[in-house]
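Hi C.,

You asked whether I'd gotten around to modeling the 250-residue construct. I have! Everything is below, sequence then structure, no commentary in between.
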Amino acid sequence: MSEVLSVCEMFSSIQGEGFLAGRRQVFVRLAECNLDCRYCDTSFEKSDSCRMELEPGSNSFELVPQPLSSSTIIETIIEWKSLLPGAHHSISLTGGEPLLSADALACLLPEMRRLLPLHLETNGTMHLALGQIIQHIDYISMDMKLPSTSGCTEHLWELHRLFLQTAQAAGNVSVKVVVGEQSGLDEIGQVCAIMAKIDPAIPLFIQPLTLPGGKVGISAVHLLRLQANAAAQLADVRVIPQMHTMLGVL
C-alpha cells in the first residue's frame, strides 16, 4: 500500500455518541471538512503534523509528520491491538469529514477492516463519496444538521436524504441530530420525514447540545418535547448526551 492520508490525530478512547456509544475504538480523525458547524468541538485543519497517542489510552501524544502513510496507520492499529487484546470494538473514521478522503480510503479500508470492524462518522452530505467505500463499512453514523444548532442552511436536507438512501445499503446505519433550546418541532419533523420515507426503523439519536464548560444547552422539558415528536414518527428514538465529555476522555 502506498496511499497517504492527512490525519489530525490517532488515539484510543470510548465512543461517546450514537449507536456505538460506550464501545472502545481506535479513532482516526481525518483533516478538513466541507461544513463549518458552529458547535463543532474538534480541530480538523490540515497541518504538517499529526497527534499520535504514544500508547492506547495514555492521553500522551507525540507529533509525527504529515501526511501519514497507510503502512503507519496499519502498523499502529496492529500494535495497539497487541498491547490491549480484545479492548477495541472497532475503528472510528471521523473528522472533519472523512469522506473528503474517499479516494485514499477506498484503497486503505480493506486492510483496516481485516483488523477491526469499521465505523464511519460523517456529516451525511457526500453520498457519491460514500458510494466509493460503502462496501468496506460496517457501521455508519450520519449527522443531520439542524439549522438552529449547526448554523448550516436549509439546502442540506436534500443532501441528507440522498446520503441516507445510499447509507441504508450498509445495514447498520443510524442518524444523529444535535438539539438546543432553539431547535424546533419543524426541524425534528423534517428529520423524521426523511427517515420515515427511507426506513422508519433506522435509529435516531437526539444529542443535547454541549455548551462550553460542559453545560447542556437545552432544557429537559424542551428535550422531552422533541423526543416525543420524533417517537411518534419513528420506531427507535434515543436521547444520549456526549458521554466522552461526561467521562472526561477524548
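If it helps when you're writing up: The helical segments are 70-83, 102-113, 127-133, 147-150, 156-167, 185-198, 220-231, 243-247.

Thanks,
B.
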